[in-house]
Each structure stands twice: as structure tokens, then as C-alpha cells.
UniProtKB/TrEMBL annotation:
This is Phosphoesterase PA-phosphatase related protein. It comes from the Bacteria. Residues 113-236 form the Phosphatidic acid phosphatase type 2/haloperoxidase domain. Coiled coil: none annotated. InterPro entries: PAP2/HPO, PAP2/HPO_sf. Pfam families: PAP2. The keyword Transcription does not apply. Keywords: Membrane, Transmembrane, Transmembrane helix. Signal peptide: none annotated. The keyword Membrane applies. The chain crosses the membrane at residues 26-43, 75-97, 109-128, 165-184, 191-211, 217-236.
Length: 340
């Protein structure tokens, strides 16, 4: 009887928690993130203990040298890049070919592109890693480094470039979790579980490498899920009509047609400018050719006249020389200089 009542209590709590989460997912996820932040700040030994599980004195973090784990890290990183790149490519192709439909749902594409840009790119790598100088586990004195341990959310030294708080890879892989919302309802838990396993494995992999603390990955995941819930509300609730697929499709078609018209006008203007330039060059070359031919004609005429004089004088040179003793020839030669 006691066990039955206990199970009913747990079921009641579970149902109420799920209902509260469904009603206020943003607030619930934000509260979880705040709780995790407060917990790790209040109990920093948890971070040390979790990292110590993967550390061997004198060796370091041996998992970082396991080829299979390194390949898994590269695989997870590539998977997270494929999604936003594919969605961005789909929108770009829609602009290039405006008469064709989008490859993917335009609202879903914009949702995930916004999530990846605001979350891992801006929030984590742009803000947190830039201003919170928390050293990585491999860099602190307890695990063979030279920097002191720093609690979560504490702004540390700014001389450290390779910073730990928060985890960029955990944030990026966590952005895949909302994919479960875009599959048929019957498959959501299965897809969410599969992606969740990938998120946990990636996070543990970073901890095993000595690259992040447990607080880095958990807080990073909490922040991304909170952001994902906020963007989901914006795209699918608050601005659902303005950002629906039909409206976005029509807007992208209009932008694509306008861009196509601008490209055609640019090609026409470029052709006109190129044609005018070609004609100007042709006119210039023609004028230069005519001037060159005129100069060549004058030179040729000048050379031809002198040659005629020499041709007339030369046959008379010998007889005149015998009569005048060479003075006439010298005088004629002086009046007809040799320019050959």
C-alpha cells in the first residue's frame, strides 16, 4: 500500500513538472540553468572531482591521445556544421532560383540559423569565452598546468587565450536537440533520446580530454536550450503568422526576383561600359595607327627623294671629276649629304 501511494506521488510530481514545463519552457529551462550555475559555484569541488576521474598523475589526460575518441570529436563537430550550412544553402538557392520552392522549411531554416548564430557563435564564443577567463582543466595546477582553478561564472585572468567557460562544442551539439520538435510526434522521444546521447557523449569526451569542466558543458547546454525555447516561441508562437512558411516563401521569392533583376541590370550596365570602353580603345588605336602611317609616309618620301638625287648624281660623278679635278663631285656630294 505504501509503495502504491509512493508511486502515485511520484507520478503526480512528474505530471505536474511536465505540465509546468510545457506551459513555461523558457522559464523552466532558465531556472534549471540558474540552479546549475549556483550549484557549481557553491560546490566547486564537483568540477575537480569530475575532471580527476579522467586524469592520471604524470600522464595527464590519456583519453586525449586515443585516436577513436579524437575521430568521434571530429565527427560530432562536422555534424553540427552540416545543419546550419545546409539550411543556409537552401535559402541561398531559393534566392538564386526564386521560381522554385525552398529545399527546406524556410521557418525551420531561419530558426536553426538564428540559434547557431546567436548561441554558439555570439553568446558562447563571442561573449563568454572573450570575457570569462576561466582556464581549462589541463591548464590548472592540479592537473599539470600553471594557472589556478577558477569557479564557474567568475571572471578570471585575461592573459589566458585558450579559455574554458563555457563549452563551445557542447553548445553547438546541444543546438541539435530542437530537431526533435520537427519530426512527427510519434518519433519525438526517440529522436530526442538519440540526439541526447550524442550530446552527453560529446560533453564527456571534452571532459575526458581535459578541455572542459563539468560545469562548462552543463551550463552551456542549459543556455542553448533556454535560447532554443525563446526562439521557438518567437518563430512559432508570437510571430507565427508573420514567420509562417507561406509568408517567408513569398518574401524570399520577391527578394530573389528583385535580386535577379538587379543582376540582369548589372550585367547590362557592365556590357554597356565594356562596349564603350572597347569602342574608345578601338578609336584610340585607329587614330594612333593613322598617325603612325602618316609619319611613316613622310619618312619614306624623304628617304625616297634623297635616293633619287644620289641616283642622278652618281653616273655624272666620274666624267665631272675628270674635267674639274674632283672639285665638282665634292661640291655635289656636299649638297647631297649621305643619310643612309
Amino acid at each position: 500500500m505504501y509503495k502504491i501511494n509512493q508511486m502515485k506521488i511520484f507520478d503526480y510530481i512528474y505530471v505536474n513538472v511536465c505540465n509546468k514545463f510545457d506551459q513555461r519552457p523558457i522559464l523552466s529551462l532558465f531556472a534549471v540553468t540558474v540552479f546549475l550555475s549556483f550549484f557549481f559555484y557553491s560546490f566547486p569541488s564537483v568540477d575537480r572531482a569530475a575532471t580527476a576521474l579522467f586524469y592520471q598523475p604524470g600522464v595527464g589526460f590519456p583519453a586525449a591521445r586515443v585516436e577513436a575518441l579524437r575521430d568521434f570529436r571530429n565527427l560530432a563537430a562536422n555534424l553540427t556544421v552540416i545543419l546550419p550550412v545546409a539550411f543556409s544553402l537552401g535559402l541561398f538557392l531559393k534566392l538564386v532560383y526564386p521560381s522554385k520552392p525552398c529545399l527546406f522549411s524556410p521557418r525551420m531554416s531561419l530558426y536553426f540559423i538564428s540559434l547557431f548564430l546567436i548561441g554558439p557563435a555570439l553568446m558562447v564564443n563571442g561573449v563568454l569565452k572573450s570575457f570569462w577567463g576561466r582556464p581549462r582543466p589541463v591548464n590548472i595546477t592540479e592537473f599539470g598546468g600553471i594557472w589556478p582553478f577558477q569557479e564557474a561564472w567568475v571572471i578570471g585572468e585575461h592573459g589566458l587565450l585558450n579559455r574554458s567557460f563555457t563549452s563551445g562544442e557542447a553548445a553547438t551539439i546541444a543546438c541539435l536537440l530542437p530537431l526533435a520538435l520537427f519530426v512527427p510526434r510519434e518519433w519525438r522521444w526517440q529522436v530526442a533520446t538519440l540526439i541526447g546521447v550524442l550530446v552527453v557523449a560529446t560533453s564527456l569526451n571534452r571532459i575526458a580530454f581535459g578541455a572542459h569542466f563539468l560545469s562548462d558543458v552543463t551550463i552551456s547546454i542549459g543556455l542553448m536550450l533556454t535560447l532554443a525555447a525563446a526562439l521557438h516561441r518567437l518563430f512559432f508562437v508570437d510571430r507565427a503568422e508573420m514567420l509562417c512558411d507561406a509568408a517567408l516563401e513569398a518574401r524570399l521569392t520577391a527578394y530573389g526576383q528583385r535580386w535577379a533583376a538587379d543582376r540582369a541590370a548589372f550585367r547590362r550596365r557592365s556590357g554597356e561600359v565594356l562596349g564603350a570602353f572597347t569602342r574608345a580603345v578601338g578609336t584610340f588605336l585607329t587614330a594612333q595607327g593613322a598617325a603612325a602611317r602618316m609619319v611613316a609616309g613622310r619618312i619614306e618620301a624623304s628617304i625616297g627623294g634623297e635616293a633619287m638625287v644620289r641616283a642622278l648624281v652618281t653616273p655624272l660623278a666620274a666624267p665631272l671629276s675628270s674635267l674639274t679635278g674632283g672639285r665638282t663631285v665634292r661640291r655635289l656630294s656636299q649638297t647631297t649629304p649621305n643619310r643612309s
